[in-house]
Amino acid sequence: MAVFDSPDFDEHEQVLFVNDRPAGLRAIIAIHNTNLGPSLGGCRMWPYATEAEALRDVLRLSRGMTYKAAMVGVELGGGKSVIIADAHKDKRPELLHAMGRWIDSLGGRYITGEDIGTNPLDMAEIRKETKFVSCLRKQDGGYGDPAPMTALGVYQAIDAGVERAFATTSLKGVRVAVQGVGNVGARLCALLAEAGAELTVCDIFADNLERVVERHGAASVAPDEIFALEADVFAPCAMGAVLNDETIPQLKAKVIAGAANNQLAGERHGQMLAERGIVYLPDYVANGGGLISCAAEWYRHDPAEVEKNVMRIRETCVEILEYAERNAVPSHEAADRLAEQRFRP
Ligand code: NAD
User: Fold this and answer.
1) DSSP secondary structure letters along 215-226
2) Which of the ends of the chain has fewer CB neighbours closer than 10 A, N or C?
């Protein structure tokens, strides 16, 4: 299997394959780039069907963290880890402790946090073996759930996109379709409702949906109806790859900004959005508020500064859109190029 020359490898600095027999742990820790600081990225626990699938996922995710950190202006690099296991069946304290020891063996080049399949309690377990953990609960010495800051960042991105598309600085009466009203989506709805936006939401989990409908007077639609809705803004806050061949032709929204990671199914879908005149705020910038919070926790910066820094996501979005226009490239490519200018020497 060619690794160094595979497209996903993309100049990773270091990749650690962990086979800890006594603990029954199989994991991969990927460090993409540490030019701006130690790498930080969550620890995902997922029952990957193949090792190749796990490797591809961790490489892609750690690379993404480098770009995100560079664009939201934190002194961190990009890294990520995956534990090849089923979070519902295989999670045991010994497994997490072993993971903590392997993270510790990297001497701080990689800092972990929660991700799909892991939660703050798991981070507290990993913390017993290594100090290289961030995004902890307040009772564990952290700055708490990053979701409110993620939502605030997405709000800033929407605001910048609306100004670009509709030449208005107010969100009053702007029709926003939110896909997924969980931790981030529900908080985003609260901010949008306060600004006078008209909300339509969908979710596959009825409790989450009803809460937002009741609290903010949002309308609701079935999950498959959200794309074709008569809306000004589409905010994907559920899962990745939602901007694809099937959904893009349905979209009526002129602005897309949301919390979900990897919203574009492929690079060419960013191009498709640009060709349709849709203002796309790149996902890793729009959802970078959580990372700003985790970075502040790691460096013990004043928590009061976090919100101010998250508000700067708006300026960063404007910078990306201006760069895209000047250089006639889609916005996702503009963001990548600007990020590379920051983290490459
Ligand atoms: P969450 O699990 O709390 O919420 C996701 C919501 O989406 C849930 O209510 C779920 O029922 C719903 N959902 C799932 N599939 C759906 C579908 N097909 N249609 C409609 N709704 C669907 O997660 P979250 O913390 O709110 O994160 C949302 C997204 O943002 C995720 O992709 C996450 O990776 C990303 N993200 C989150 C943060 C953060 O700080 N929490 C930071 C960066 C990125």
Assistant:
1) HH--EE--GGGS
2) C
